[in-house]
Amino acid sequence: MNNQQPKSKKRRFNFRKKTSDELADEWAEKSVELPRMPFFYINIYQFCMPIFVVIGINFFIYYLYELLAVQIFLQIIFLPLIFIIDYLMYIWSMTKFCKILHWYYNKQSPAKTGVFSRKFTKHNVADRGVHYYHLRGFMYKWPVFISKKSIFPWMVNFVLRDMAANKIDKDVIYGDAYVSLEFTNLQQGAIIMDGATLSSHVNDSIFGNLTIEEVTVEKDGVMQTNSIMAPGGTISEGTAIGPKSYVPKGWRIEREDSQFIYGAPAKKFRQSSFIDLLPEEIKTQWLEKQKKIQK
Fold it and tell me: Where do the TM regions start and end (predicted)?
């Protein structure tokens, strides 16, 4: 009697190579062609409208020169001042015109926080809120860039405060950082140092949903160089996170009894543990200084 069990047959998977026509049809079905004209109109609107304001100011100055019979050498002396005025008025008027456009987009689809679907149809995004989010983000970039890279970098606070859904108090210092375009809450004395990144939006994955939440730096909070804050993050009052730290989505960082907060994710670090990481020479100097302070 043969007790051997019959051998199970191995399943074979037949992978059929798709033809070039099938791949082309699949690519055409999944690809998305966003409408180009709205972005083109935004560029023209942002560039041309402020120029008309600057031209009008220059005509008015020329009229004053003629009316008051200002001599040519005085006109040359005043020329640098006029250039500065033109530049300031260009940024200011651009912000005001973008504010009008922002008001129109908000009438179509109000800016709001939450989780949004990033499913695309063949010609546009399916979610109306995401579509206008793209338009608003594109509109913000040029005024923010031209104000940050100007000889008056403090104007970026004015631009963000006046143009978008941001709350930026007085005495806020924005270094050469990557600013958040919408839903930023920076309270009095907040400091965002060079290379830091504030982001009120993030894609959960390449094809995942879009998350938009407010980012907050409370009074006298500090983001050190190259630190990152994800949507929904909060730095509490008087708290500073160290360089190259990361505040994950929805986290609140509080100082309490810890003087050092850093890492990825950012977390409390005891002072004694921090001192142990220092070189011996610096560690000795630190301890001696602390003894003098205690005396």
Answer: 40-65, 71-92
